[in-house]
Amino acid sequence: xxxxxxxxxxxxxxxxxxxxxxxxxxxxxxxxxxxxxxxxxxxxxxxxxxxxxxxxxxxxxxxxxxxxxxxxxxxxxxxxxxxxxxxxxxxxxxxxxxxxxxxxxxxxxxxxxxxxxxxxxxxxxxxxxxxxxxxxxxxxxxxxxxxxxxxxxxxxxxxxxxxxxxxxxxxxxxxxxxx
Length: 179
What we know:
Elements: E1 2-5, H1 10-18, H2 31-44, E2 51-54, H3 58-71, E3 76-77, H4 95-101, H5 122-137, E4 145-149, H6 151-158, E5 167-169
Parallel strand pairs: 1-4, 2-3, 2-4
Antiparallel strand pairs: 1-5
Helix pairs in contact: 2-3, 5-6
């Protein structure tokens, strides 16, 4: 499977420059992030992807959609692979807002407010990562699956810190080694 950290968001752009939370709930991709997403079509497009699983945050969906369009795949939205709730960007958009913006995607598995209302512990993100691992490992076609998620979730899932727009091929049937 391929795991991909979403491309640069407006939050990432501002936070990197100031090291302060800019107070942007569910930020979209920055101009640079949109360019990164377009480039990923060529980079990942030849990887025989048949399934895309995406976090419900706008930045993850915006990262996944150019790839999905190029491969004629409708992504599956999963709140299980959302970011760890810790900053303003981790407040999501309501299900109805997402459904209006992306009518071709199925958001019916989400609560209206699907994100965590409190700061999550690293242990709770580890638990979500292990639950996702157990679910995806029994999938019949995980080898051809792209997962578009976030830094903290992917760190818990892979033990690798990925930059915006970076991806990694992994075997979810083998837990990553602890550092």
